[in-house]
Each structure stands twice: as C-alpha cells, then as structure tokens.
Amino acid sequence: MTGPPHDVRRIAHDRAVMRSFYLSHYEAVQRFIARRVDDPYLAADLTADVFVAVIKASSSYRPGAAGELAWLYGIARNVVATEHRRRFHERRAVGRIAGQRPLDDDDLLELEERIDVEAQARSLYQAMGDLPDGERAVLELVALDGLTVTEAARALRITPVSARVRLHRARKALRDRLPPFSATSPTLTEA
C-alpha cells in the first residue's frame, strides 16, 4: 500500500507524517524482510527496526533522489545486513567456545582469585618502576631472581652493605606506596 509522497524530512518531528508513512509502507517493508529472514519473530523485530531507523535518518532524505520507497528499501537492506553480520559474529563466537567445559563455581572462584593476585602484581610492578634504578635493581635480583643480597651486590658491582641499604629503601618505598597484600600473595619481606 503506497500512497502519495510524504514529507519524509518531517517524520522525526510530526507523528501524523510518521503514521501515514508507516501505514503506507509497512506491508512493503514486511515483505522485503520476509524474503530475507525465515524467523517470523525476527522479521517482526527487523520491520520495527527499519521504521526506527527511518525516524533517525529522515532528516537526511533527499526528495529528488530515488524516491521514498527506494530510500526505505535501502534502510531495510542495511538493517537486514546488520542483523546478518551480528548473527555471523554470534555463531562464530559460539563456535569458538563449543565443546569447551563450562566454568563451575569453583572455577569462577579460582579465576577471581587469580585476577585479584595479578592485579596486586601489576600494582607492585608499577610501583617498582617508580623506584630509583639502583634500588629497583637490587630488589629485582633478590625478590624476583632469587639471589642473596651478597650475590646481588656482586652482580651490580656494589658492596653488600650498599645492596642491603638499597633493598631496605626499596622495600620501605613499596610498603609506603602499596596497600597491604592479602595473605595469599607474596610479601615484600620474603625476599
């Protein structure tokens, strides 16, 4: 059912124009969608989406171009294409996880704990980056690489006393900058 041309540019602001446009073109849009989609519920949703898109795009309508039905079919084509892309991405995502074991409550709890621990580690590494080079070097050699203070001093070609002082300063600076770690995370004094 197509009637006389409408003032399409007024659709977003004039309910009477929108109603008339909708009544004139609803069946054509519904047929257009039904030829491309086999689910009646999806077809109904997409038909509604087309008219929502019409309201949004009405100000860009150019009367001299192809005519309102061609313009409307262009919008409908974009709505259907967007839905096909969405479904394709959804199927691909589902395919990626197909056959994967779903997470149970214990898995989720373990994952949450791991994320929490890693968040603490990220904070620690960021704070370590703010330390002076000499202090950070001793702390990394002792706390991360497992060297003794004497071995770290040799590696850095400083005295063991200097290494102990730098390690003490680094630990103190980190304790001052970071919130207390939980009981399950490594502490700065273990090194």
Verbal overview:
- The protein has 2 domains: 8-97, RNA polymerase sigma factor, region 2, helix turn helix motif (Rna Polymerase Sigma Factor, Chain: A, Orthogonal Bundle), CATH 1.10.1740.10; 105-190, Arc Repressor Mutant, subunit A (Orthogonal Bundle).
- With 191 residues, the protein is mostly helical.
- The chain has helices at residues 15-34, 40-57, 68-97, 105-129, 133-144, 149-156, 160-177.
- Mean pLDDT is 83; it is low at 183-191.
- Helix 2 crosses helix 3 (68-97).
- It has 7 helices and no strands.
What is the CATH architecture assignment of the largest domain?
Orthogonal Bundle
Q: Total domains, how many?
A: 2
Residues in helices, as a percent range: 55-70%
What's the CATH H-level homologous superfamily of the largest domain? RNA polymerase sigma factor, region 2, helix turn helix motif
Mean residue pLDDT: 83
Spatial extent as radius of gyration: 33 Å
CATH topology of the largest domain: Rna Polymerase Sigma Factor, Chain: A
Structural class: mainly alpha
Task: State the distance separating the first and last CA atoms.
Answer: 81 Å
In total, the number of strands is 0
* CATH class type of the largest domain: Mainly Alpha
Silhouette: elongated
The amount of beta strand, in percent, is under 5%
Annotation field: number of helices: 7
- Main beta sheet strand tally, sense and closure: none
SSE run: HHHHHHH
Poorly predicted ranges (pLDDT <50, ≥5 residues)?
Answer: 183-191
